[in-house]
Amino acid sequence: MTTDHPRMYFKPGPPTTFNASPDPTLLAFHQRLPGYAPTPLVRAPHLAAALDVREVWVKNEANRLGLPAYKILGASWAVYRELETRHGPFTPWNTLVELSAQLQAHLPLTLVTATDGNHGRAVARMAHWLGLDAHILVPEDMVPARIQAIEAEGARVDVIHGTYDEAVAAAARLADARHLVISDTAWEGYERVPGWVVEGYGTIFQEIDQQLAQQGGQQPEVVAAQMGVGSLAMAVIQHYRAPGRATHVVGVEPTRAACVLHSLEAGKLTEVPGPHASIMAGLNCGNTSPLAWPYLQGGLSASIAISDGQAKEAMRLLAQDGVVSGESGAAGAGGLLALLRHEDAANTRAWLGLTPESTVLVISTEGATDPQAYARIVQAGPDHA
């Protein structure tokens, strides 16, 4: 068990309820993508015991549409909606081959984005499916395995000598009529596409609701949400802080890239300058998306920043429950472990309404995107964290 002391923030007063109206065609769109199947929702008894709750459900996104992360859900929907906005309306289609045929008159088109790994690979996969080009910009601390995975999708990859946030700025400068920027973070004047990315993640929660009903599970009292720029957490809040739901949402970030937590403490968007040195690469962001910010500020019951050691502990614990979860993927579980086992955990449990009879949901957002690092971490004991 790690003894790292986490940095925490608790929202004063009850979290806000949000009205969100997801596109009713979203799930049907994803069902038309190659290899669609709902990802598993599995019980995690070892994690439940560590958290001292009755049941933990893990939504395992280690294999989503043939990719090792959930990001393809948001990237595919955003690409489709942006292409339709610019070059539609499309005639009815059943396969991506039929959709691609409707884009031929508009070629060449290049999809552009910045990424810490999974989002860029998802955008590149969508470009490959549709016969488009892809140009992906990555920060200089990107591990080779993730760069190679993006290149294997047929994309051009450029390494930006700087942080993820500097890669985002560089990608934004490439936008023109034939270069469509598909970013999962927003900035002034650019919110349409990131909004569709967030909306695309809604398929996860439609699946979870169906799976809990099928498996006899209860709706969770607490959901953990990893936070980089905040897009996934925004999607979690839209679903679980909707009218009629009383679920608490806990946001989790790396200690060295806790831009949401710092913003919550300051009461306004606050940058955390780089470098953002953390193994939780997909969460190494210095700026919160302004699109997500109102939801995070209003809808999070608590926020916590965790160390690499706490993420590693969660990876090993999830592995005991049969879930292969990468460094960013396990961060949500790591945050709950840190939040519910510190010296004032009793008050935290009371604030979140957690008892030994409670149900908790964790989203494992990625599998082993760096297989060598995953094997090294999971095989190591706590003393080698």
From TrEMBL:
The lineage of its organism: Bacteria, Thermotogati, Deinococcota, Deinococci, Deinococcales. This is Diaminopropionate ammonia-lyase. The keyword Transferase does not apply. The keyword Lyase applies. GO terms for molecular function: lyase activity. Residues 34-340 form the Tryptophan synthase beta chain-like PALP domain. SUPFAM superfamilies: Tryptophan synthase beta subunit-like PLP-dependent enzymes (SSF53686). Transmembrane segments: none annotated. Its cofactor is pyridoxal 5'-phosphate. It comes from Deinococcus hopiensis KR-140. Keywords: Lyase, Pyridoxal phosphate. It holds the Pfam family PALP.
